[in-house]
């Protein structure tokens, strides 16, 4: 489950969508916040304006009603006061306070049958404002202030100021409206946000993401070798330029690869013809060298030169045979001659043939074969002998003097696995990738000054793969190399 978010965020579509969603969310949050604040401020101003207007208009009627009915018609007074206060629900309480600070009336303490007891106001600031002959507010009116109380003076007809009327303002309606506004804004913002994200996803998907995916898909097909694939996008922007560049690159690669294949074909044909045509003159040269060596009249110096000529001719013949083998395997012009092959006997035969080389370098063989004779393989004996001979030859060539060549054979399931280990120079990591390539000569070959054209391991790989087998190696530089060959006990075979 922890890997799921990482996998999702690898998609540019998801990452782009998340970024857009966050940006839109911030925009909607800021705009909604500004809208809510402005709406609340507007409602507060409206409420205050209405409360001030109400207090100015109602103070005289309330004062007159108090003077007429409070003492003689209390019930009538409370009824009229209730009707007046009902005109503005934001005024939650009204008090009538005398200039001496006596609370003559409190709308929250209305009794059904008689007026409440008179109490004294203890807040000196309120008493001071009651004595004033003008409207006042608590807190005092300032820029942007929210008054909670308004005090309006009451004047009788002849100008006397017996008391003032104190209005208590409630902002509960604004608070309730604020909750409704926030809920509405959240719902509208969520709706707009979802709609905007969907719209952006559709537009961006069609104009950017989908064309990019088309380019990626086409690039992968080209990577897989389909150079004839043409990426088609309708964009006239950078994505269209990218698609055109990839198409052009594919066509260039196609032309270059076709040219390389043609050159490779010509090279292979030349190698085949050259090596094939070399066989006849080499045979003639060998024959004449043999005739000359039988001439007893030749001196020691001439015989020594003939021996060098014979050795060089042999190397030239081996080179020609290697090139012919390579061409034969690559062109698949010769079927494998399948027979039952005993790998134990074949390995012993090969090791005996390298007796001279082993003796010169004082190398010892260690052969580890199963106690029970392993199964035979169905293979072309000469081809397999050539492949294994190349591996054993390398194990001897690139071994140290007095080293070991350890050859093991084991049977696993329906495969025989042969390993050939040496105690030589090893193979570097840089060389490892090229070991089985055609015409590759490792650095160690140059250091040991061995002749060769770098096709031995390449031919080995072709032969083993022709038998549905596998060849690989493990190596540590300076410690040695182990080559492994896996061959099926029973399989169908064809060259290549």
What does the average pLDDT come to?
Answer: 82
Shape: rod-shaped
What topology, given as strand order, has the largest sheet? 3-2-1-6-5-4
Q: What is the number of strand segments?
A: 13
- The level of helicity is 55-70%
CATH topology category name of the largest domain: Beta-Lactamase
Radius of gyration: 53 Å
Q: Helix- and strand-based class?
A: alpha+beta
Domain HAMP: 206-258
Organism: Candidatus Woykebacteria bacterium RBG_13_40_15
Transmembrane segments: 12-37, 178-204
GO molecular function: ATP binding; phosphorelay response regulator activity; phosphorelay sensor kinase activity; protein kinase activator activity
Describe the structure in your own words.
The protein has a 6-stranded antiparallel beta sheet with strand order 3-2-1-6-5-4, sandwiched between helices. The chain has 13 helices and 13 strands. Helix 7 crosses helix 13, helix 8 crosses helix 10 and helix 10 runs antiparallel to helix 13. It is 56% helix and 16% strand. It folds into 3 domains: 160 residues, PAS domain (Beta-Lactamase, 2-Layer Sandwich), CATH 3.30.450; 94 residues, Signal transduction histidine kinase, dimerisation/phosphotransfer (DHp) domain (Helix Hairpins, Orthogonal Bundle); 151 residues, Heat Shock Protein 90. The longest helix has 58 residues. It is rod-shaped and about 170 Å long. Strand 1 and strand 2 form a beta hairpin. The protein has 496 residues and is of the alpha+beta class.
């Amino acid at each position: 489950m922890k890997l799921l978010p990482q996998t999702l965020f690898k998609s540019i579509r998801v990452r782009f969508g998340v970024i857009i969603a966050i940006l839109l969310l911030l925009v909607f949050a800021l705009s909604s916040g500004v809208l809510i604040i402005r709406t609340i401020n507007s409602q507060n101003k409206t409420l205050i304006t209405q409360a001030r207007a109400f207090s100015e208009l109602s103070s005289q009627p309330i004062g007159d009603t108090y003077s007429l009915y409070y003492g003689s018609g209390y019930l009538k007074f409370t009824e009229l006061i209730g009707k007046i206060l009902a005109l503005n629900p934001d005024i939650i309480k009204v008090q009538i306070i005398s200039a001496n600070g006596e609370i003559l009336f409190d709308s929250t303490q209305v009794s059904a049958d008689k007026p409440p007891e008179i109490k004294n106001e203890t807040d000196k600031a309120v008493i001071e404002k009651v004595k004033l002959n003008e409207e006042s507010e608590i807190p005092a009116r300032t820029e942007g202030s929210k008054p909670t109380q308004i005090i309006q003076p009451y004047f009788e007809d002849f100008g006397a100021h017996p008391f003032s009327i104190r209005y208590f303002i409630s902002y509960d309606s604004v608070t309730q409206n604020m909750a409704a506004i926030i809920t509405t804004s959240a719902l509208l913002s969520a709706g707009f946000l979802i709609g905007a994200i969907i719209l952006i996803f559709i537009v961006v998907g069609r104009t950017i993401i989908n064309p990019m995916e088309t380019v990626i898909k086409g690039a992968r097909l080209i990577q897989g070798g389909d150079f004839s694939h043409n990426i088609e996008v309708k964009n006239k922007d950078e994505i269209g330029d990218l698609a055109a560049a990839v198409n052009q690159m594919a066509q260039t690669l196609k032309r270059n690869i076709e040219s390389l294949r043609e050159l490779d074909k010509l090279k292979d044909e030349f190698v085949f013809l050259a090596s094939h045509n070399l066989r006849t003159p080499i045979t003639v040269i060998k024959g004449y060298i043999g005739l000359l060596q039988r001439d007893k009249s030749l001196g020691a110096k001439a015989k020594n030169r003939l021996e060098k000529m014979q050795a060089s001719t042999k190397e030239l013949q081996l080179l020609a045979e290697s090139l012919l083998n390579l061409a034969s395997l690559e062109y698949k012009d010769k079927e494998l001659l399948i027979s039952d092959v005993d790998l134990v006997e074949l390995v012993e035969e090969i090791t005996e043939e390298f007796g001279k080389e082993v003796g010169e370098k004082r190398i010892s063989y260690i052969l580890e074969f199963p106690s029970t004779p392993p199964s035979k393989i169905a293979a072309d004996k000469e081809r397999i002998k050539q492949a294994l001979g190349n591996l054993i030859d390398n194990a001897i060539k690139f071994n140290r003097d007095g080293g070991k060549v350890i050859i093991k054979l084991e049977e696993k399931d329906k495969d025989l696995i042969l390993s050939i280990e040496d105690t030589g120079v090893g193979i570097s990591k840089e060389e490892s990738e090229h070991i089985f390539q055609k015409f590759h000569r490792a650095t160690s070959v140059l250091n040991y000054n061995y002749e060769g054209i770098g096709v031995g391991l390449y031919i080995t790989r072709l032969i083993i793969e022709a038998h549905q087998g596998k060849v690989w190696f493990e190596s540590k530089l300076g410690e040695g190399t182990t080559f492994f060959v896996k061959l099926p006990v029973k399989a169908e075979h064809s060259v290549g």
